[in-house]
Design goal:
Number of strands: 7
Strand content: 15-25%
Shape: globular
Radius of gyration: 18 Å
Strand order of the largest sheet: 3-2-1-4-5-7-6
Bound molecules: S-adenosylmethionine
Largest sheet: 7 strands, mixed
Oligomer: single chain
CATH class: Alpha Beta
Number of domains: 1
CATH topology: Rossmann fold
Mean pLDDT: 89
CATH superfamily: Vaccinia Virus protein VP39
Low-confidence stretches: 7-19, 25-38
Length: 250
């Protein structure tokens, strides 16, 4: 396996043999994704500690976070502080200037990313819900970095083909059933060495043993399997919050 990629069920490969054993053990551990779940894989106190020792979001980004908690009943959709710090680190590390986000919500992760783009940088963020545009734009307008953000409303599978490449990074954080389609749609738009980052790929652990009626868990498990066998990328699945897949296009 020159590229370090393996198929999950390849029994003749010693590395994958060990991996299969670990995976079998892991799938015995069950977790339930209850209503209002905080979507944490790591212990909450560990996450709080990690957050305390990571770069904080700006006041503007924190305001979106707090407003979303106070004014919506969907705050579980926020990427969260620790993930915002990771996204900023990734953007800075690759010197990204053009980033695409699929799934804007109230604009928390969009502004967190835009703040570390250079002055000429651009973040295009997609959402299907037109009500969200007004809310997010009102926050972006309060930030000196808001002018780097363009919002495109519509189903992402319909709006992605209209976007002009290249992108240095794509952050996928919309409907889980379409993750594979988003991944394939953006792959040609991502520059060589660019990143495709996908949130919620552990789905509170449900991907380990997806229930046959859980479409999201099944789709995410398939997404992870596809990336793991995709020779076009090198990848790492970070067990941060609800699981973050980072794939680098070679
Ligand atoms: C988890 S939230 C995004 C959270 C955001 N990245 C953040 O950290 O604050 C998912 C968003 O994806 C949007 N969405 C769902 N299906 C979509 C689709 N087919 N095309 C575009 N956006 C979609 C939803 O309207 C929702 O705002």
């Amino acid at each position: 396996m020159a590229n370090g990629k393996g198929k999950l069920n390849h029994q003749n490969d010693s590395q994958n043999g060990i991996f299969s054993t670990e995976l079998s053990t892991a799938i015995m551990i069950t977790s339930k994704r209850g209503f209002g779940s905080q979507m944490n894989i790591t212990d909450k106190s560990i996450e709080v500690y990690a957050q305390a020792y990571s770069e904080r979001s700006s006041a503007c980004v924190q305001e979106i976070h707090d407003w979303t908690i106070d004014n919506t009943d969907e705050s579980r959709m926020l990427s969260g502080e620790l993930q915002a710090a990771i996204l900023r680190m990734l953007v800075r590390s690759i010197g990204a200037t053009r980033v695409l986000e699929i799934g804007m919500f109230t604009g928390f992760s969009a502004l967190a990313i835009a703040e570390v783009l250079p002055d000429h940088g651009q973040l295009i963020t997609l959402d299907i819900d037109e009500e969200r545009e007004k809310i997010a734009r009102s926050f972006f307008d309060q930030s000196p970095h808001g002018s780097k953000i363009s919002i495109v409303i519509g189903h992402a599978l319909e709006t992605i083909p209209s976007l002009e490449p290249p992108f240095d990074m794509v952050y996928i954080d919309a409907d889980k059933a379409n993750y594979i389609r988003y991944y394939e749609a953006v792959m040609p738009l991502v520059s060589s060495g660019g990143l495709i980052v996908a949130d919620n790929v552990l789905w509170s652990g449900e991907v380990l043993n997806p229930a046959q009626d859980d479409e999201d868990a099944l789709a995410l498990a398939e997404f992870n399997t596809q990336i793991q066998s995709d020779a076009r990328v090198s990848n790492v699945l970070l067990p941060v919050r609800d699981g973050l897949m980072v794939a680098r296009k070679t």
